[in-house]
């Protein structure tokens, strides 16, 4: 499917049928299989239904504390599908309750940029863990995580015991994923992803597989033969079928030359 593009000449972004700027991210609703959200440089997050690609079903317009438009750099749902979260370019993280009118955000974290706990990767080379019941200060902070891009990512493990984050590198170095303990943010291990910065990562809670997007355009899937389920394993373990050669009955003709006697 392809979602419709909005009218770029309309001032009110809620009046357009779709986005009018570059897309920065998308995320499926974990509870409603046909719904997903997208965020864009037009300063909105739009909700879509795969059965209705010609118009969004809802739109959230992002505003800073002084009322000006701000741009969400990525977007995500909470695991129960009740909240939408998006870090913005003005240095805020905004939370919205999808069951309430999109007039005022459910939560608002000021002076920071990119379950009751949420983790966000910030442009000051830190990873912060937040408690949604207390926005005054983060629960844990990990620093020294190099971040050259505004779309760097982080995610919880399926059992919520670890946090994984992608890490940018300079040209010629290998990108990697960094795994941290959720309780104290100690580094558990690091995993090499190839000769490019690891930008986006997703740890699927059911498949128990990690999908990574690299700066060179590659996408990689990491899985465990013992602990992962379905997904990439379906095509990896499948044996290649042997091609049977058809049985052909050949009628060989022998050409002889007849001599006169």
Automatic annotation (TrEMBL):
Keywords: Repeat, WD repeat. One of its GO terms (cellular component) is nucleus. The keyword Protein biosynthesis does not apply. InterPro entries: WD40/YVTN_repeat-like_dom_sf, WD40_repeat_dom_sf, WD40_rpt, WD_repeat_GAD-1. It comes from the Eukaryota. WD repeats lie at residues 16-50, 77-99. Coiled coil: none annotated. It holds the Pfam family WD40. Belongs to the WD repeat GAD-1 family. This is Putative WD repeat-containing protein 70 isoform X5. It comes from Stichopus japonicus (Sea cucumber).
